[in-house]
Amino acid sequence: MTKFAGKTCLITGAASGLGRSTALAVAARGASLVLTDIAADGLARTAADARAAGATVHLAQAADVSDYEQVVALAAEVHDVAGSVDIVMNVAGIATWGTVDRLTHEQWRRTVDIDLMGPIHVIEAFVPPMIAAERGGHVVNVSSAAGLFGLPWHAPYSAGKFGLRGVSEVLRFDLARHRIGVSLVCPGAMATPMVDSVDIAGVDRTAEAVQRGMALFMRHAVTPEAAARSIVRGVERNRYLVFTSPDIRVGFWAQRYFPPAYNAAMRGLNWAMNRYVAQGAGAPVN
């Protein structure tokens, strides 16, 4: 089992949503924190709240994980202040939806840079020192249901999240000899600020049809606090796959053992997405 007490834990995306909730959850388990996010103000609030709850925050520094040089500079400062970390938690990410005829190259590139290359930059900068320290540890990569399933309109997001799943699948075996566990977190619907910032290519998010679709999404969403508790339990029990809601677990097993049900579900979701999003774009609904 992985224990958080007495461990130094790096968390990206810590300014809000799942990153913030995870930071506070592991702090409550006795971990000291290294926090980063691109949003400096939110990051400062998380650090202040963690300290107010009695946690040690070694460093809370804004950085863009998609910028390799910024991550390298962050790692140098962290290792100078706190030494090697024990637990790395890649939580930062963005979501971009759209069909291939509406997505821009910039949307593809930005999503992959943040959702895939961002965690890779963090792994490059922080995991080799963990290996050298010979204390074991844990790496947590937050993927998504979109890293398991062919969700409609999610191609850029899935490019990053499926890629992160592949990285994690390799690292779970590569790092085992160093006593470093790996957990791949696959959240489903979650009520975080990212819901309000999803970039839907070529669609007016304020359209009534799109708002109805978002409301339906939110009815199935778990809170970031509940998702963070699932992550903590999964890491403590050294689980590789960590689900934050039961529907994603069921979908995963259906995909593996009953493909017809999975195929029917994906077709149904695609039809529903086209219905809502096409109305929001002012296009005819087929």
| Overall residue-averaged pLDDT value | 90
| Helix-and-strand structural type | alpha/beta
Radius of gyration: 19 Å
Largest sheet: 7 strands, parallel
Distance between the termini: 51 Å
Question: How would you describe the shape?
Answer: globular
H/E series: EHEHEHEEHEHEHEHHEHH
Q: What ranges have pLDDT less than 50 throughout 5 or more consecutive residues?
A: 281-286
Strand content: 5-15%
- Number of E-state strands: 9
Number of helices: 10
Helical residues, percent? 40-55%
Q: Biggest sheet: strands side by side, in what order?
A: 3-2-1-4-6-7-9
How are the secondary structure elements laid out?
Elements: E1 8-12, H1 17-28, E2 32-37, H2 40-52, E3 57-62, H3 68-82, E4 87-90, E5 96-97, H4 105-133, E6 137-142, H5 155-174, E7 180-186, H6 194-197, E8 199-200, H7 208-219, H8 224-236, E9 241-243, H9 246-257, H10 259-280
Parallel strand pairs: 1-2, 1-4, 2-3, 4-6, 5-8, 6-7, 7-9
Helix pairs in contact: 1-2, 1-8, 3-4, 4-5, 7-10, 9-10
Overview of the molecule:
By secondary structure, the protein is of the alpha/beta class. 53% of the residues lie in helices and 14% in strands. The protein is built from 10 helices and 9 strands. It has helices at residues 17-28, 40-52, 68-82, 105-133, 155-174, 194-197, 208-219, 224-236, 246-257, 259-280; strands at 8-12, 32-37, 57-62, 87-90, 96-97, 137-142, 180-186, 199-200, 241-243. Strands 3-2-1-4-6-7-9 form a 7-stranded parallel β-sheet, with helices on both faces. It has a two-stranded parallel sheet with strand order 5-8. Helix 1 crosses helix 8. The termini are far apart. The model is unreliable at 281-286 (pLDDT under 50).
